[in-house]
Design a protein that fits this description.
Two copies of one chain form a homodimer. The first copy, chain A, contains five helices and ten strands; from the N terminus they run E-E-E-E-H-E-E-E-H-H-E-H-H-E-E. In chain A, strands 1, 2, 3, 4, 5, 6 and 7 form a seven-stranded mixed sheet that branches. Chain A has a three-stranded antiparallel sheet with strand order 8-10-9. Chains A and B meet through strand 1 and strand 5 of A and strand 1 and strand 5 of B. The structure holds a DNA duplex. Chains A, B: Pfam families: NUDIX (PF00293), WHD_NrtR (PF21906).
Chain lengths: 234, 234
DNA sequence: CGCCTTTTCGTCAACACGACGATTACTGCC
DNA sequence: GGCAGTAATCGTCGTGTTGACGAAAAGGCG
C-alpha cells in the first residue's frame, strides 16, 4: 500500500460454472472438453474470462452459462461457490476464477453438435475418481461444489431446484437419495417434507408413473430454509 | 472466447477482511478510516490490493490482516466469504475484491496509535444502521458477513472461535446470545453443548467470575460440525 | 452463618425422528 | 372382472431431543 514504484497488479478474472443436475439416477455435472491449450482435450468446467472490464461477475456467469451450455438463468438456481486464485493454477498466467454453482432440473441430454459447444454431462463420482484427469484445479472445485450441494439440501429447500416445475414427492426424495448417496424411507420423508410449511404447494393434480398409486404433483413453494433441518446420517 | 482483436481484460484484485469479534457485550467488526480517496475519511473494511501478480489470495488476506489489524492468522479462524465485483463498486477503476471472514476472540482494544494503522472496533448494529456511511459496497459485505456468522453458529463449533483459548460455558453461551441477539437458557445450553462429543474439552480447572459458583474451564475440541445442529428460533 | 449469585444437575411434557404396519389407488395380466 | 404387484399415503409406536423450569451445589460478601 506504499505507493513508491509499486503499481496495482492486474490479473485476469474468469468465471467458471459448476452446473449440477440429477440425471439417469446419478448426480451429474456439466463439463466441456477443452479445445485449446493448456490442458487441451481434457475435461474442464465451462467458463471463461470476463468479456470486458465493465462486465459484472454475475452477468458473466449468466453469459457463460448460456454460451457454453445453452441454459438460461431463469431455469435454474445460480449462486456463488467461491473464488480460486492460487498463483500457479493456470500455467500461462495469473488467473483468478470466481466459481458459480448451479442446480438444474434434469436436462434434455444436450447431444454433441447441438447449440451448446460440446457440453457433456458426467456423473460426479466418475469425475472425482482419482483416475479421471480434470484441467486446472477444477477437480477440487467440483469436489467443493458437490459438498456444498449436499450440505444445502440439509437446511434449504434447494433440493426442489433439481426437479422440474411440477414434480412428485418421489422425484424430490430421489434427488435427496442420489445427491446424498443414501436411501431414505418414503413414509418418513413424506411426513417431514409436508410438515415444512411453504416448501411444496400441491397443484391438486395427480400423475401416474407406470405402476402403483398415482402421486400428487407439487410446485416449489416460497420457503427457502428448511426448518427444522433435515440432517443426513453420519 | 473468439480471439479476434479481443484481449483478456485485466482487473485489479483486492482482498478485504471482515473481522468479527464479541466485545463489550456486542458483536463488533474491525474497520479502518480511509486516509485516501475515494471515500476519504469514511469507514471501510481493512484490505488492499494483491502485493504482486504472484501473491496467493489466502496469503494476501493473511498479510492484510497483519498489516492493518496487527493480528496473526494463527489467532483466529479465517475463511472466504465471497467475491464482490460489480463494475461500478469502485469509482476509480474496475476492482474485484475477494472478501474473507474472520472470527476473533475479544481483542485487547487496539487503541489508535498502536501498531495497527487506526483499526477501530464498532458494533455491527451501529455500522449497519442506515444512518452510518460506509465506503464502497462494504455495508452489504458486512451484512453478509454477519449473516454468515449467525448461520455458522448453528451447525459448526465456530462459536468457540470467539472465545479465548480457555473459557467457560457462560462465555460461549454469551457468544451465541450476542451474535444471535437472543437469550438462551443456561441449563439447556449447557446440556446441549456437553452433549456434542468433541466440541469442548474440560481442562479440569475452575474459575470464579466475581460472584456465584465457579465455572469449569474448557478448551476447544476437535469437532468442527455441530451434530445435531443448534437451530435458532425464527 | 445466612443471603445472593451463578453454575450444574434433574424432571417433565411436547415434539421430532426412525422403523415399520396398514390402507389406498392405480397398472397389468389372466 | 378379479387378482397380483407396486407405489403413494396415512398411522402407530418407541426413542431421543428440546424447551420450560425446579432444585441443589459452590462460591463471595456482609
Amino acid at each position: 500500500m506504499t505507493d513508491d514504484a509499486w503499481t496495482i497488479p492486474e490479473v485476469a478474472v474468469a468465471v467458471d460454472l459448476a452446473v449440477l443436475t440429477v440425471h439417469d439416477g446419478a448426480l451429474q455435472i456439466m463439463l466441456v472438453r477443452r479445445g485449446i491449450p493448456p490442458f487441451e482435450g481434457m475435461l474442464a468446467l465451462p467458463g471463461g474470462f470476463l468479456a470486458s472490464t465493465a462486465e459484472d461477475l454475475d452477468a458473466a456467469a449468466a453469459r457463460e452459462l448460456t454460451e457454453e451450455t445453452g441454459l438460461g438463468t431463469e431455469d435454474l438456481h445460480l449462486e456463488q461457490l467461491g473464488t480460486y486464485g492460487a498463483p500457479d493454477r493456470d500455467p500461462r498466467r495469473r488467473v483468478v476464477t470466481v466459481c458459480y454453482l448451479a442446480f438444474s432440473p434434469d436436462l434434455p441430454t444436450p447431444t454433441a453438435g447441438g447449440d451448446a459447444r460440446e457440453a457433456i454431462l458426467l456423473p460426479v463420482d466418475e469425475v472425482l475418481d482419482h483416475r479421471t484427469a480434470v484441467a486446472f484445479d477444477h477437480k477440487k472445485i467440483i469436489s467443493d461444489a458437490v459438498e456444498r450441494a449436499r450440505s444445502k439440501l440439509e437446511y434449504t429447500t434447494l433440493g426442489a431446484a433439481f426437479c422440474p416445475p411440477e414434480f412428485t414427492m418421489t422425484d424430490l426424495r430421489q434427488v435427496y437419495e442420489i445427491v446424498w448417496g443414501t436411501s431414505l424411507d418414503p413414509r418418513n420423508f413424506h411426513r417431514k417434507i409436508t410438515g415444512v410449511t411453504g416448501f411444496l404447494v400441491p397443484t391438486g393434480e395427480r400423475v401416474s408413473r407406470q405402476v402403483g398409486r398415482p402421486a400428487a404433483l407439487y410446485r416449489r413453494g416460497d420457503a427457502t430454509v428448511l426448518h427444522p433441518a433435515m440432517l443426513r446420517n453420519r
